[in-house]
Each structure stands twice: as C-alpha cells, then as structure tokens.
Amino acid sequence: MNYPHVTILIPIKNVAKYIKECLDALLNQNYPQDRYEIWLLDNNSNDGTLEIVANYPKEKIKVVQTGIDSPPVKYNRIFPQIKSEIIGLVDGDANVDREWLKKTVEQLEDPKVAGATGVILTANSNKLIPRIIGYELQDRYEKMPREIKRAATMHIVYRKSVIEKIGGFNEQLKTGYDAEIGHRINNAGYKIIFVPEAKVWHNHRESLLAFFRQQYEYGKFAIIRYFKLPKMLKGDNVSSFWMISQPLFYAASLLLFVVWLFYKFPWYLILAPIIVLLIVYIFSAIRLSVKYKDPSAIFAFVVYFLRPVGWSLGAISMISKLMIEKITDQNRS
After folding, report:
1. Could you report the per-residue pLDDT of 239-268, keeping only the tens digit for each?
2. pTM of the predicted model, to two decimals?
3. What is the DSSP string of 103-155?
4. Domain locations in the chain?
5. Helix (H) / strand (E) containing 157
6. Which of 203, 189, 204, 186 lies closest to 150 in space, CA to CA?
C-alpha cells in the first residue's frame, strides 16, 4: 500500500473528559508515524482541554485557534493551509480503532473514491442512554452497503481536491453538513466507501434532554439542506425515507385535530397516526433487544419517539425564522 500523507482535523471545545483517549488512539495508528499529523481546531476551550493537549508532542499535534465558528467554517478556513491530499475528520469525543487510518485511506487509492468511513460503536456503553442511542445507530451502520451516499464526520477521510472542487462545506449548516456534502460528492461522480473494519467508539449524549436538543438542531438545519437538495428527501444509507417521513405522522395528528374542531368524530382517531408510530417503535426496540441480547435496549422506543419530535420542532423553528427574515427584507425594500 502507498501511504499518502494525511492531516487529521479535530474540532474541539471543552473535551477534557475525552481528548486523551481520542489522541492516544490516533497516535497509536497502524500507519507510518511520519505520514500523518493531527490538527486540533480549538473553539476557545476553557475546561483544561489544552492543558492535557500540551503533554503531547508538538511536532505531531498542532493546536489551531479557530474562534467560535461552526465546523464547516473551520474546515473551509483551514483547508488552504493543509498540504496533504488526504484529510481525516474525527470528533474530539471519539476514539478510533488502531487500523482505522490504514483501512480508510487505502480505499482512496481508487481516484473515483473521495471518502471512506466505517462502523460507529459506543464508547460510554456503561450508561443506559448512550447505550440505547448507540444500539440504534450501530444497527443502521451495520446495514451499510459498500458504496454509500454519505456518513457522519465523527470519523471519515476525504480527498481534499474533491472537497475543494465541489465548493467545500456548506457554511450555512451548523449540523447535517456531512449529509449535504456527501450528496454533492456523489452528484459530482465520486464515491464514498463504507469499510466495516474501520471502527470508532463515540461518546453519545448521556441524557434524553441532551439527545432531544441534538435532534432539534438537526431538524432546524435539515430544512436548509432539503431546500438546496430536495432529492435528499428520498433518504439515504444513514437516514432512510422512513425515518425522514416520521414527522408527517405527527403532522397528520395535528391536521386531524384541526378537522375535529369543526367536524366532530371520535377523538381517539386524532391519535391514530401517533399510535401507529408507537407500535412500530416498540417492535423496533424489541428487535434491538433481541439482536444485541440486552433487555435494556427496549428503552430505545423513547429514542425513536423523541427523534422525530425534535426534528419537527426544529424544522418549525427554522421555517418560522426564514419566513420572518423574508418578510423583514420585503418591508425594508
């Protein structure tokens, strides 16, 4: 295998709890040590993260103060400074398998391959909420085909020239930029490869409230993605059409409620779409319990339920904001 030089970018902010495991894993890669470097894109960390990083060799790990910006802004700003053709992206709360870099980079020997990623496992599986979030995510990733539309940037390698060719990351997106750029990569005629042997252990949200807030943010910026690339509504290997369509069941119940206000019918029919979803969620959670041989996975139905609620409220929030901005602009003109 040819070992091209790789620059690994890690956007960080207050990850003192996780950064040691993250860096130790990256420094222990089965890849020539002189053929990769690590850049930490710091967002004004003040929890001791940088003090921990200071213990690592400066010739291997570079800290770049990028200010308070979203990852897409950071990536686009830093790309011109990078000489490597291959760029790796890893989250600061994740730690990769020793073979991760080698297994992903070797896929890019094909000039039509612009990215490569692998399986997502759960680092904090000793806690209930992260464990059930992890089961649901792992279940989806284990069904991936070899060629995929997109993958999360918590661990992925990209061909820098292709990212630059398609215009870089979408800076309008605080979240979901990985989905959007994946579709643009595919639309440009390039491939992203899924490598089951390339693994990452990610620390998932530790409370349902934190998970809900995350999904709320996803819902907000999904609206911008779908306006720009409506074909994404068909779903992909990470978020299927079934997942994307679930908020419509809540919308259906809301519509039935409005109709019920004017034309009375049995009130319980208003809840019928949501009840259908709940039944599907319960059976899906049972399936996860059986698959992973863990009775606690039954609580995944709560994750299934909260996700489309968060998406829906986030989408409503963004649509309202865009409408207000449009009305304001019209009044000014």
Report:
1. 999 999 999 999 999 999 999 999 888 988
2. 0.91
3. HHHGGGGSTTEEEEEEEEEETTTTSHHHHHHHHHHHHHHTT--SEES---TTE
4. 6-206, 241-332
5. strand 155-159
6. 186
126: left (phi over 0), alpha (psi -120 to 50) or beta: alpha
Per-position DSSP letters for 45-62, written without gaps between them: --SSHHHHHTTS-TTTEE
**197 near 254, Cβ under 8 Å?**
no
Q: How far apart are CA 166 and CA 185, in angstroms?
A: 7
Q: How far apart are CA 123 and CA 157, in angstroms?
A: 21
In terms of Cβ atoms closer than 10 Å to its own Cβ (0-12, 13-18, 19+), residue 258 is exposed
98 by DSSP, 3-state: which?
coil
Distances (CA, A) of 140 to 119, 193, 253: 10, 16, 28
For the stretch 282-319, what's the b/e string if a residue is b when 16 or more beta carbons lie within 10 angstroms of its beta carbon? eebbeebbeebeeeebebbbebbbbbbbbbbbbbeebe
Minimum mean pLDDT among 41-50, 89-98, 243-252, 323-332: which range?
323-332
6-206 falls under which CATH superfamily?
Answer: Spore Coat Polysaccharide Biosynthesis Protein SpsA; Chain A (3.90.550.10)
Assess contact for 222 and 315: CB atoms under 8 A: yes
DSSP secondary structure string, 239-269?
Answer: S-HHHHHTHHHHHHHHHHHHHHHHS---GGG
Q: Work out the angle at residue 93's Cα, subtended by the Cα atoms of residues 87 and 291, and round it to the nearest 5 degrees.
A: 100
Q: Which tokens is 225 given?
A: 């993605």
Which of 159, 156, 152 is closest to 177 using CA atoms? 152
**What pLDDT, in 10s, does the model give residues 157-181?**
999 999 999 999 999 999 999 999 9
Of 118, 108, 194, the C-alpha closest to 158 is: 108
